[in-house]
Amino acid sequence: MNSRVRRRHGPGRERHYDRVVAVRVGVFGGTFDPIHTGHIVAASSARHALGLAEVLVIPAGDPWQKSGAVHACAADRLALAAAAIEGIDGLRLCSLEVERAGPTYTADTLEALAEPERELVLILGADAVRGLGSWSRADEIKHRAVIAVVHREGDSEALPPGPGWRCERVEIPRLDISSTDVRTRLARGEPVDGLMPPAAIHVVRERRLYTAPR
Ligand code: DND
Q1: Domains of the chain in sequence order
Q2: pTM
Q3: Helix segments in the chain, DSSP class H
């Protein structure tokens, strides 16, 4: 998308020119097993703080670094994410990684989402930033996206793995919620109200997800 900018230069003199302004689009990927309120706050805060046109919420189809440790199938995690972000301004579900066969690599996703005049902003929590060096084709990611590190009060500094990364930082409220904790509570039959959006809890109940620890 282009924004055409017309400016006046001094009284009676007008210069017209076109300036192409890149649209910034957030990319927020996750295993989302399950998605929870901390994820939503991170995506939404990053969108606001960085002036992103929208944030694509992208559940991983086959998060290879968690192989054997993912509890819900990709279709269920996608349904949870869809329910969780429904009605939230500027967050949009993207099923690209669930539809792609094989291990999920963020480099492939950034390649697929690349468009002229679109700047991709990869939104990451501190723990994800620390792992970046172990990701597939990390060097390619470095060139394809700006990294937005969502920083919660009390987080230790998380830096990208080496020079050349374009990096921004977003301060977000500290919500100590983890998918592991949500799963444990669900397996014990404890409430997760407030930890997940109500519509996502409805999907959990409807599909009988996370009923037993694995
Ligand atoms: P996670 O398994 O950490 O997702 O995966 C995050 C992303 O990294 C996914 O898109 C993966 O495909 C990608 N990845 C990982 C490893 C290798 C490669 C790619 C590769 O290409 O080779 P979680 O569901 O656990 O968390 C999602 C995000 O939310 C993370 O950035 C995490 O730090 C953040 N987060 C929170 N942020 C704020 N408040 C909280 C949070 N809990 C998790 N309470």
Answers
A1: 22-177 (3.40.50.620)
A2: 0.92
A3: 37-50, 74-85, 96-99, 106-113, 126-131, 138-144, 179-187, 198-207
Calpha distance 196→85 (Å, rounded) = 10
pLDDT at 21: 72
* Spacing, Cα 4 to ligand 1 middle (Å): 36
d(CA 173, CA 66): 27
pLDDT of residue 189: 96
CB 82 within 8 A of CB 93: yes
C-alpha to C-alpha distances, 62 to 43, 74, 102, 106, 111, nearest whole angstrom: 21, 7, 7, 11, 17
Amino acid of residue 127:
D
Give the gyration radius of the chain's Cα atoms: 19
Residues of the chain with pLDDT under 50: 1-17
Residues with CB under 6 A from ligand 1: 29-32, 38-39, 42, 60, 63, 65-66, 104-107, 124-125, 127-128, 131, 135-136, 150, 175, 177-179
